[in-house]
Amino acid sequence: xxxLFAEQDLAETSGGNNFADIILPVPIPRxxxxxxxxxxxxxxxxxxRVIVQFGKKKVLTGIIGKVHNKPPQAYEAKPILDVxxxxxxxxxxxxxxxxxxxxxxxxxxxxxxxxxxxxxxRLSSESKxxxxxxxNPETSKYPLDLREEKILEAxxxxxxxxxxxxxxILGVKTIHPILKSLxxxxxxxxxxxxxxxxxxxxxxxxxxxxxxxxxxxxxxAIFETVQGKPKQESILLKYLRDVxxxxxxxxxxxxxxxxxxxxxxxxxxxxxxxxxxxxxxxxKHVVNRIEEEKAEREAYDLSSTQQAAFEExxxxxxSKQCVLLxxxxxxxxxxxxxxxxxxxxxSGSQVLMLLPEIALTTQIVSRLRQVFGSQMGVYHSKYSDNxxxxxxxxxxxxxxxxVVGVRSSVFLPFDSLGLIIVDEEHEPSYKQxxxxxxxxxxxxxxxxxxxxxxxxxxxxxxxSFESYYNATQGKYGLTELQHRFGxxxxxxxxxxxxxxxxxxxxxxxxxxxxxxxxxxxxLDRQExxxxxxxxxxxxxxVQCEDCGWTGQCVQCDVSLTYHQFAEELxxxxxxxxxxxxxxxxxxxxxxxxxxxxxxERIEESLSLLFPEARMGRMDLDTTRNKYGYQRLLDEFGxxxxxxxxxxxxxxxxxxxxxxxxxxxxxxxxxxxxxxxRAGERAxxxxxxxxxxxxxxxxxxxxxxxxxxxxxxxxxxxxxxDYFEFFRQEMFDRKKFYYxxxxxxxxxxxxxxDFKIAEKAAHALHREMANVQAKKxxxxxxxxxxxxxxxxxxxxxxxKLDRSGNTQAVFKEQLAKILEELQSRPEFRSVxxxxxxxxx
Length: 839
Ligand SMILES: Nc1ncnc2c1ncn2[C@@H]1O[C@H](COP(=O)(O)OP(=O)(O)OP(=O)(O)O)[C@@H](O)[C@H]1O
Ligand SMILES: [Zn+2]
What we know:
This protein is α/β, with parallel strands linked by helices. It is built from 26 helices and 33 strands. It has seven domains: about 20-115, 3-Layer(aba) Sandwich (GIY-YIG endonuclease); about 125-195, Arc Repressor Mutant, subunit A, CATH 1.10.10; about 200-285, no CATH class; about 305-480, 3-Layer(aba) Sandwich (Rossmann fold); about 490-540 and about 595-720, Rossmann fold, CATH 3.40.50; about 540-590, no CATH class; about 740-835, Alpha-Beta Plaits (2-Layer Sandwich), CATH 3.30.70. Helix content is about 35%, strand content about 20%. Zinc ion binds near residues 555, 571, 573 and 576. Adenosine-5'-triphosphate binds near residues 303, 327 and 333.
């Protein structure tokens, strides 16, 4: 990953500077420069929110991105109207990160801001109206009509009115024309009222009225008044038991929440009486949404191999900003992370650990929680907005010095990161597809660490080729763990031939004899089984039932994708296409199939084959609610499920000792990823799934069903020689110009009218061809799905040379080209989506 960030001086305050660049909300693409009025000079700080006028009428809230002394060339700078924050909302390092992200991923800085701020902190503005101070009804040239006068009357009594207020006053639905006319007559002003959306969580609590709490004698006297009223007496006693104000009257301040005071049998009405009689009072108390949890254990002592890896990583960090920890599944990477995190926290710096979405709800988080307790914040995509704001504020206040989170946690307001860990760094889900910024969290994390002068540790059992390439080039440090922790050995692979079994009539409900035997053996030993069916990134393809043939692109070295509508096989990359053959070009069989099998059907088949076994299924359907995933894992962990069928979800960081057999239901589906990454992904998926098997003392067994077990990719993957596999694949990547040898940029052109979309895509293509930068432009091609939500789409793929400033030049030119195209009337409603490092 290269930095496109041009160093710029980010002064903390305005100093002697006269201008400020302001980040404005979407759809305003870039920062605009404003004058700093002398009066506001002392309040101007990077990251503070300001109010500015934009265009003729609009008043917007933005954030100060930069202060400097250069007046804008193309326009006259307007003054900043007001500064909203005494303490900036966002720190200068964050702003720097946003600027980098917008430049690198070719998007609006306002889009980055939108993604970065949890919606609970987002600036929301509501239009309000007020009287124009310069307006004088006596001297005004414009007569007002009745309705307009009514609005002005209302404004005499109230400083401001909302649109809603105006609608009520006049009893009409469309108020805007009337207000517009009033603005034109210079009678009113429209402005935006800024408000924060975050709402703290408040609890209703009760406590003794303060005079009683402070005075023991008065409190004694109270007992006499409640005598003979057992219900009231019991409440009073319970309060004093939980809040011992006799010993310490200050405890009364925080009181007790109503629910814990009123136990079963207690009546709300007795409490009400106590309040009415001036003994208790109720009050509102702001509480944390995220509960405190205590650390429960010390970190484990590292084994000597782990210790050596730990030391090596630290040595690498002395000279390298980034280190790749390549350790086989079950090698104990997590324990090494824990030690590193502890060291960095002790030195007083912050730590961020990124995890793929789904892994966040699992074991690994509770393992970390056990060691780090309440100083660890968790930033989850299933959190509510308010919960996210609390993590945000927790980072600001120092409550959380360590955060584990999903990709969006790179936007948290860290000010002194010492270390970022990206676990499972190869995970495709680190890339955000939609909407912009379409960033890759791993790459963004490396950049973020760079801004903080921090270190980044990438960890994986199956590193992405990008990262491994960087490591072999010496750009990253490389530390490898070749063996599992303890006595556990690597699992054993078995290829089960679907075609052969079918011919011999051994196939039962899509399962081979091998699969059935291995499952049965595990069940007999009371061990557990995981069955994996690939889903994500799955595009339909055509395959021969007999020999396993699939269509391949002649120019790109990728599998062809099945397009049902056109009855064609097409290349996702170069657009090569062919008709679906009637019979298999390799063996002549007419048994060509296109469909895959879903997890649901596999679950059904297995429950017929193993009626005694307790089945579980984990996929999007069964984990839709917030706790679905956790519940299934808990059941599986407690041994209440014998066979768990699932998609990618069952692979992420799971560590269950009783799993000894892993079945891959459709191995061919894994190989036929329609992408130049097919090999890399196949290696990753098979190795990761297999890695769940035999993590303790019993050796794991992995069964892969395939119609074409001779496929050389299996051979390569199963040999488990990552380096050799990497070396061979890189040869192809180089030959066919694919990452990491080039940078990929995908541009999608969208429009509801097919002709316009096509024309715009070709216009873009012509313009790009003129850019003087080392590159290959492919396409435009009809999108894999030619029409999404009634928008036709065309895709262009650009391969950029990695040397020199090719990328910077190209991206700058691209921005200009898109701006120019968009300004053409015929393309006004065309949408262009740029995806950098598309993967
Ligand atoms: N030093 C140690 N002392 C005790 N137990 C350990 C130690 N290191 C690892 N383990 C245990 O070994 C198992 C595997 O370790 P861990 O889950 O950290 O491996 P990993 O490399 O992260 O695996 P994967 O990449 O497959 O998720 C876990 O159950 C873990 O608790
Ligand atoms: Zn092709």
